């Protein structure tokens, strides 16, 4: 690696001494420096090492020596091009990254799935709201801030590409895998949010990657477990599913990830996953849509692809389809061997191999990997977990929380000595922050935990009831249970009720809201969401969000009061 790095730095320095010349000349010099580095690295690699550059292998920082030894072996003997980190912690990951980079002939491209920040994969890191929460916000500059903050944190941790944003349009409330990972069901809102997020992250020098092409938003199956079918015709897919992708391509997003989907209207051969389809990856994505950035497969160990061919054969098919980077292969040595064999048999041309490998090397140059520096471990946790994350989350929820009903102006609720107000918690999540904040403005009595019969009897003493539905896993999009629905509807028959839902708006899809005076959707059950929601109930803040996806005909997408 030293020879490659020194050569790149020397060329960069020699060309850089003319930096006082006009900008046009400087741009040419930068281009020449990049081209020289890319060409010199490419020419220094064996065929096996060139093929190795196509692979980003899954790795973890919470596993033992056997795992880390296996990754080191892959780097040293197979020359893999990159790593995608999964579970672990930031300091452990940084140390491992430094070790792995020191062993690699060509600097490694490091990636992560950080859709709502590093916390999606790593402990001891900040978490930001889900895309569906962000989709409720009208001010897209806030989405830019989120993207920028996540970009800064990825960069601090030596991550060069974040596999985000998800730009699937979630038009199917029963979607088992996308759901709140989507910005919603309005294609323009999804595109605008994705553009803002991408600009924010890429402004920090971290590559964004739109997923899951050609669109995973209206499926009822999980591609981790099977091959979902998208049954729409070409016209529908072009006008809806592809819309945000096309808008992001115009804005030069660095990467796109191809999903494992069965799309009969786009791929004529029955059962071929979109990730392995030449028609979808090359004819549509590369040629019709003219996308020039890096093309990644979704994880090749997922059953949507893995059930189609054997390990190695899947990777070869994915590369022949037109993908540049093969992600999370099940067997890297076997896959590399298969592609080398195809190259030697002239089933893959030198032009095709050079096209993808040089594209990957150019991305590495743009990530400053031609001047690689080890990650500084000092104060890493502190740098990632500063107070700006809390302030940004507060700003997000203050703009996302959405009011659906306010009959007879039940909101805001003010202190009134003549009124008795009860609070009831439903669901399996925590609620103390919400209740504590409510008590700063009103006298409210917590009746949580009583049996239904005793609860209905006790409520006869009260004038108003605040019901908090708190779901511990805010990613779930299922409806409120029939038991809890019955309790809510029974209370609303006789009492003035404010219902605050700390989960996806989809939780309300089967609930009768007719007799409920006040309804607020807070999207998530975080402490910050609870704090801001209580402030809205007390009138200290206003609810300004709009539904990112429909609940039913009465409460459609973009509804909010």
Spell out the key features of this protein:
561 residues, alpha/beta, TIM Barrel, Rossmann fold, 2 domains, 6-stranded mixed sheet, 21 helices, 14 strands, elongated
Structure description:
The strands form two sheets. An eight-stranded parallel β-sheet has the order 7-6-5-4-3-2-1-8. A six-stranded mixed β-sheet has the order 9-14-13-12-10-11, with helices on both faces. It folds into two domains: 45-384, Glycoside hydrolase, family 3, N-terminal domain (TIM Barrel), CATH 3.20.20.300; 401-537, Rossmann fold, CATH 3.40.50. Helix 8 runs parallel beside helix 10 (243-250) and helix 13 packs across helix 14. The radius of gyration is 26 Å and the shape is elongated. The chain has 561 residues and is an alpha/beta fold. The chain has 21 helices and 14 strands. Helix content is 42%, strand content 11%.
Q: Quick check: average pLDDT?
A: 93
Shape field: elongated
Strand-pairing-aware structural class:
alpha/beta
Give the strand content. 5-15%
Summarize the main sheet.
8 strands, parallel
According to CATH, the homologous superfamily of the largest domain is Glycoside hydrolase, family 3, N-terminal domain
**Computed Rg:** 26 Å
Overall tally of domains: 2
State the name of the first-level CATH class of the largest domain: Alpha Beta
- End-to-end gap: 59 Å
* Tally of individual helices: 21
Catalogue the unreliable spans: 5-22
CATH topology of the largest domain, anyone? Answer: TIM Barrel
Strand order of the largest sheet: 7-6-5-4-3-2-1-8
